[in-house]
């Protein structure tokens, strides 16, 4: 019998709350059931990721009831609609076809993405081969989804000797752009202007200033050094960029899902085409897993079950992500946009109040965070579910002590959060029973990186479907932009506090 969404939630909410320690004692197979390895490649270079959700409060029975909730939410149908390129963003009447960029989706969209990717490959290779003269630096200007993915990927994958030195600049604060200018030689620098709409104020102002910097530094044909990455190619032409240097992508690719499109150009320029393609292939392996599995076997959906258990039933208002890998230090920033811009909503698809939706995503890198914020995780009053991310293979070439200590610390934190510690001294007691999930990558390379990001994308979508919200619009960011434009235009009065601030700063 299929339950309604409300009935399914009621069943989920009725479960008792045994402690994690009790759950491990009750079920000897808990690790086998809840720590699942996803193989990305089965060829002679196997690569995989272990998704260990055993230190969460998920149980067989709870999973069964969450599966009923997924059925009530028509999860399989919604997921199939996503891959079929149907409208899954009803408020904007759009599909969300980021997986087509990786080769998994509606045939015509996959073909279109392949053609655009080929264009990007040719330009990337031509630049590497010197067709545009010597290129040592790329200043990539973009913001939000047009910057966070490229910044994360370049930082993670292009650490040793990038083919081209990439600087991602997003902030309108000129300090950010000046920092990039300091590090680049104008004679060998190209500018990438990344904007889906090609209208975003920060990006367009930064692009103008970057162009001016080239001109002021004696670069002839400065606009010939600018490349546009956009879903609005006509606007890039208007801006003065030659069509041959415009890399378009489809309107159906959302900004925060766009690193797989031409927005990922700085990644390809930094790491080379083969690694960019490997990143897409790694993500495609997760797409196929997500498309072809149901219920608890579907790892992003399983993770979403745990997410909702904590946010809806245990009142967790935040979730923390700690990468025990310096190369992933930008992961929390990236996930903040992915998860909070997608699921930071307060109404369901039909416009009624939704109840609690996305928790606040935050985090940092291990082991640094242990010496800064972990006190609260262990002894504070908030219940904060944690994701740990680590790679078995080291990212460094120093002796193995560094990496071994790093991994030991990562696993120790998960164990400590769960076990807690009793003491006669309340100041020295740890309550324990604090949940964590561990994502353990065999080796962080382009493919496993792509897979990791795709896992988080699908987990975000799965959460949205179970919550009955639209993850693909972001109207909440518009009002601030409108007010900023009104201030710029002048002639309008605002509240007394804002007026006083404008006066104090002498702006507006
Ligand atoms: O401010 C929100 C937003 O629309 C993001 O969703 C998007 O990634 C970012 O702005 C940048 O937009 P664009 O790529 O059009 O410049």
Automatic annotation (TrEMBL):
<dbReference type="InterPro" id="IPR018189">
    <property type="entry name" value="Phosphoglucose_isomerase_CS"/>
</dbReference>
<feature type="active site">
    <location>
        <position position="481"/>
    </location>
</feature>
<keyword id="KW-0413">Isomerase</keyword>
<feature type="active site">
    <location>
        <position position="371"/>
    </location>
</feature>
<dbReference type="InterPro" id="IPR023096">
    <property type="entry name" value="G6P_Isomerase_C"/>
</dbReference>
<dbReference type="GO" id="GO:0097367">
    <property type="term" value="F:carbohydrate derivative binding"/>
</dbReference>
<dbReference type="GO" id="GO:0048029">
    <property type="term" value="F:monosaccharide binding"/>
</dbReference>
<dbReference type="GO" id="GO:0005829">
    <property type="term" value="C:cytosol"/>
</dbReference>
<comment type="similarity">
    <text>Belongs to the GPI family.</text>
</comment>
<dbReference type="InterPro" id="IPR035476">
    <property type="entry name" value="SIS_PGI_1"/>
</dbReference>
<keyword id="KW-0312">Gluconeogenesis</keyword>
<comment type="function">
    <text>Catalyzes the reversible isomerization of glucose-6-phosphate to fructose-6-phosphate.</text>
</comment>
<dbReference type="InterPro" id="IPR046348">
    <property type="entry name" value="SIS_dom_sf"/>
</dbReference>
<dbReference type="GO" id="GO:0006096">
    <property type="term" value="P:glycolytic process"/>
</dbReference>
<protein>
    <recommendedName>
        <fullName>Glucose-6-phosphate isomerase</fullName>
        <ecNumber>5.3.1.9</ecNumber>
    </recommendedName>
</protein>
<comment type="pathway">
    <text>Carbohydrate biosynthesis; gluconeogenesis.</text>
</comment>
<dbReference type="GO" id="GO:0004347">
    <property type="term" value="F:glucose-6-phosphate isomerase activity"/>
</dbReference>
<comment type="pathway">
    <text>Carbohydrate degradation; glycolysis; D-glyceraldehyde 3-phosphate and glycerone phosphate from D-glucose: step 2/4.</text>
</comment>
<keyword id="KW-0963">Cytoplasm</keyword>
<dbReference type="Pfam" id="PF00342">
    <property type="entry name" value="PGI"/>
</dbReference>
<dbReference type="GO" id="GO:0006094">
    <property type="term" value="P:gluconeogenesis"/>
</dbReference>
<dbReference type="GO" id="GO:0051156">
    <property type="term" value="P:glucose 6-phosphate metabolic process"/>
</dbReference>
<feature type="active site" description="Proton donor">
    <location>
        <position position="341"/>
    </location>
</feature>
<dbReference type="InterPro" id="IPR001672">
    <property type="entry name" value="G6P_Isomerase"/>
</dbReference>
<keyword id="KW-0324">Glycolysis</keyword>
<dbReference type="InterPro" id="IPR035482">
    <property type="entry name" value="SIS_PGI_2"/>
</dbReference>
